[in-house]
From TrEMBL:
This is NADP-dependent malic enzyme. Its cofactor is Mn(2+); Mg(2+). It holds the Pfam family Malic_M. It is an enzyme of class 1 (oxidoreductase). It comes from the Bacteria. InterPro entries: Aminoacid_DH-like_N_sf, Malate_Decarboxylase, Malic_enzyme_CS, Malic_N_dom, Malic_N_dom_sf, Malic_NAD-bd, Malic_NAD-bd_bact_type, ME_PTA. In the N-terminal section; belongs to the malic enzymes family. GO terms for molecular function: acyltransferase activity; malate dehydrogenase (decarboxylating) (NADP+) activity; metal ion binding; NAD binding. Its EC number is 1.1.1.40.
């Protein structure tokens, strides 16, 4: 492992916090506040109605206010990370940070509150008074032992979940990591010898949880600044004394001799390399102090290359940090309106996190980290950006809350709940739900033309694993098989691989293609070479001859080159103009944009055709189409010579009543912004457009790519429309989920 220091400077950290607007959070209204009417509804007099409804029945607060999704992150700054007692105000950047993590990872709205008191009772009273505001309370960075008194009192007093994150969030994550580290090193919890350094909030909770999971009391030596906590030692409070053992070891160094596990929840550099040497074989070292660990992984590995090392930081492998827990634990608790976060919910979360790390890692996670993860010494715990955490951990917590009797709301359909959790962070999932279901109900054979590409093969494996159909893999047989094994595909031998070198279909393919191309300047020899050497040609011929239902390519050649190769075998549908659609999925809207890939200057007929076909795709994906023909000009203003074919396209649709709303020519603001739309009361669009027919390839392709790069949207596409058989060309930058989505869309007959 290379030597590692921060990959940012102190200046950069300050700049990050200072720019755009100071701090890390802002409040965004979830309802429109544009008109006098909005004002009347949101504020006086309209607001009086929900006020009365809540006064009549307090449960209505969950219905008419943000309470049930709102968590307070509350600190007094007495134990800010491992930096000590720096006061309430100084803790604000950490608390704002936790609020951002709640939102980013679990769509929980959170606000930081810093209380300027070290008096536990004053703290308890202040928080208790806030109960009506929040759906949950996340206590943070409050030092021991006050944190124990504060948390217990608030748990007893309040009917909403209260959790001290440094205790239980940390305990859950470290327990999950420990379960997996023990699994990898072949240890059983009941046998392991543990040294815990630190005897504060985090250390005491972590120790209690691992003991409740099977670690034996007498096998744990806990140390604080004065050394080992042994029975009879002076100056030990009730929380520490619960972990005192009968031992003659007195220092951390002595405690570590023969220890299997070191759990550090103390301070920077508290663990010396020369002490690590004395630990048992394959030691497990969790140096969790923040921002600087008790020992760096480099220093630990230098003396013990056989160690498994984890820290609380994101810039080393194995980040054991409560960020993996608190967002998802509160998500699950809020969703069932739990009155508490109890032991059952904590253990369910720890097990769900541990199990998740053992599953293959999806590519979007690999993409977020720029590398692949596979369960093992450098990946004992999922990474915070793993999108599966939300679905897995929150559902496990919600279920445990229900089973243990603290849920006020019962989830009846857990599949639907898991799905809702998934779509909460990724709206694509909900848009595509029906399509995925259709694909499953009617599984097809999809030809993956570039199966030697890892991205493609991952998509193909998922296509089969998720039950969408049968992938037909085109590539060199052994290379594809080897990669299937490398990617841990189930039963790699059972995948169908098509290779032109040994395919019996080649003579038939050559005949078929020669017949098509002989009057287009190709000799039989040329055609034979194409079939044998060009994967797109070979894959398209499999499709043309009925050996698959759809085909996908695009990762190894430019779009134009791939299209040229495909077009030699698969032509347009009779009467169709092939073109491309990009689908942009935003938080509230989905927009279909076309033609983003093929026709440089579409004629009026082509524009009308693109409008009809794109409207049909939008409808198949559950959107009632409202088509805008876009231009730089809105209804003739400013005038210009390029407007004619757009107007002619509108006239073509006028003459045929296509069965959907359309209007043009118009600029994007007149198509999408209701305020601007009101300037044109004669417009035939009943609301903002959701199908944008672009005037030419320049503007279309640029817009799609700009939105992909800059927008907060999820982009699907380009989707290829109008070919004789369903063929899709993914962008060269696609990752496995993009390829999978296109494959499913094609096999479900939504596009093609
Ligand atoms: N990775 C993660 O997710 C998390 C990491 N942490 C980290 O754990 C640490 C403790 O946090 P928290 O429990 O909230 O704080 P507390 O103030 O409650 O506890 C701190 C504990 O650390 C002990 N300690 C400090 N320095 C040393 C040392 N050199 N040797 C032995 N013990 C020492 C203190 O001993 P004494 O009792 O003698 O004063 C005290 O018991 C921090 O570094 C924090 O960043 C915390 C939560 C989550
Ligand atoms: C991660 C965290 O909560 C801490 O270090 O205090
Ligand atoms: Mg903390």
């Amino acid at each position: 492992m290379a030597d590692k220091t921060n990959d940012f400077t102190a200046r950069e950290a300050l700049f990050y916090h200072e720019t755009i607007r100071p701090g890390k959070i802002e409040i965004i209204a979830s309802k429109p506040m544009a008109t006098q009417r909005d004002l009347s509804l949101a504020y006086s007099p309209g607001v009086a109605v929900p006020v009365q409804a809540i006064a009549d029945d307090p449960a209505n607060a969950a219905r008419y206010t943000a309470k049930s999704n709102l968590v307070a992150v509350i600190s007094n700054g007495t134990a800010i990370l491992g930096m000590g007692n720096l006061g309430a105000l100084a803790s604000k950047p950490v608390m704002e940070g936790k609020a951002v993590l709640f939102k980013r990872f679990a769509d929980v709205d959170a606000i930081d509150i810093e209380l300027d008191t070290e008096d536990p009772q004053a703290f308890i009273d202040a928080v208790a008074l806030m109960e009506p505001t929040f759906g949950g309370i996340n206590l943070e960075d409050i030092k021991a032992p006050e944190c124990f008194i504060i948390e217990q009192a608030l748990r007893d007093k309040l009917k909403i979940p209260v959790m001290h994150d440094d205790q239980h969030g940390t305990a859950i994550i470290s327990a999950a990591g420990l379960l997996n580290a023990c699994h990898i090193t072949g240890r059983k919890l009941e046998d392991v010898k543990v040294v815990v350094n630190g005897a504060g909030a985090a250390a005491i909770a972590c120790t209690s949880l691992i003991k409740s999971m099977g670690v034996r009391h007498e096998n744990v030596l806990m140390c604080d600044r004065s050394g080992v906590i042994y029975i009879g030692r002076d100056n030990v409070d009730q929380w520490k004394s619960a972990h005192a053992v009968d031992t003659d070891r007195r220092t951390l160094e002595e405690a570590l001799v023969g220890a299997d596990i070191f759990l550090g929840l103390s301070a920077k550099d508290a663990l010396k390399p020369e002490w690590v040497v004395k630990m048992a074989d394959q030691p497990i070292i969790f140096a969790m102090a923040n921002p600087d660990p008790e020992i760096t992984p480099d220093a630990a590995m230098a003396v013990r290359p056989d160690a498994i090392v984890a820290t609380g930081r994101s810039d080393y492998p194995n980040q054991v940090n409560n960020v993996l827990g608190f967002p998802f634990i509160f998500r699950g608790a809020l969703d069932v309106r739990a009155t508490a976060i109890n032991e059952e919910m904590k253990i369910a979360a720890a097990q769900a996190i541990a199990e998740l790390a053992r599953l293959p890692v999806p590519e979007e996670v690999a993409a977020a980290y720029g590398k692949n993860h596979q369960f093992g010494r450098d990946y004992i715990i999922p990474a915070p950006f793993d999108p599966r955490l939300m679905e897995t951990v929150s559902a496990a917590v919600a279920k445990a809350a229900m089973d243990s009797g603290v849920a006020q709301f019962q989830i009846e359909d857990f599949d639907a709940y898991r799905h809702a959790l998934k779509s909460r962070m990724n709206p694509t999932t909900s848009v595509l739900t029906t399509v995925y279901a259709e694909a499953k109900n009617n599984p097809k054979r999809v030809i993956f033309a570039e199966a030697e590409e890892e991205v493609v093969l991952r998509a193909a494996i998922q296509f089969r694993d998720f039950g969408y159909g049968t992938p037909v893999l085109v590539g060199r047989t052994q290379a594809v098989r080897d990669m299937l094994v490398e990617l841990n595909a189930d039963d790699p031998e059972s995948f169908e691989i098509q290779n032109s070198i040994d395919s019996e279909l080649v003579p038939q393919m050559v005949d078929y293609l020669y017949d098509k191309l002989k009057r287009k300047g190709q000799t039989e020899r040329d055609v034979r070479r194409m079939v044998n050497q060009n994967r797109n040609t070979f894959a398209c011929l499999l499709l043309a001859l009925g050996h698959g239902d759809a085909m996908i390519s695009g990762l190894t050649r430019t779009f134009a080159q791939t299209m040229r190769e495909i077009s030699q075998v698969i032509g347009p549908k009779p009467g169709a103009v092939p073109f491309g659609i990009h689908m942009m999925i935003g938080k509230n809207d989905t927009i279909f944009m076309a033609d983003t890939t093929i026709n440089e200057r579409p004629t009026a007929e082509q524009l009308a055709h693109i409008a009809r076909e794109t409207a049909a795709v939008a409808r198949r994906l559950g959107h009632e189409p409202r088509v805008a023909f876009l231009s730089y000009s809105t209804f003739g203003n400013p005038p210009g010579k390029w407007l004619e074919n757009i107007r002619d396209a509108v006239a073509i649709l006028d003459a045929e009543d296509p069965g959907f709303e359309y209007e043009g020519e118009m600029a994007p603001d007149a198509a999408l912004n209701s305020k601007v739309m009101r300037l044109y009361p004669f417009s035939r669009l009943s609301g903002p457009a959701n199908v944008l027919v672009m005037p030419g390839l320049q503007s279309a392709n640029l817009s799609a790519k700009l939105l992909r790069e800059l927008g907060g949207n999820t982009t699907i596409g380009p989707m290829l429309i109008g070919m004789e058989k369903p063929v899709q060309v993914a962008p060269m930058t696609a990752i496995a989920p993009d390829v999978l989505t296109l494959a499913v869309l094609a096999s479900a007959g939504v596009v093609g």
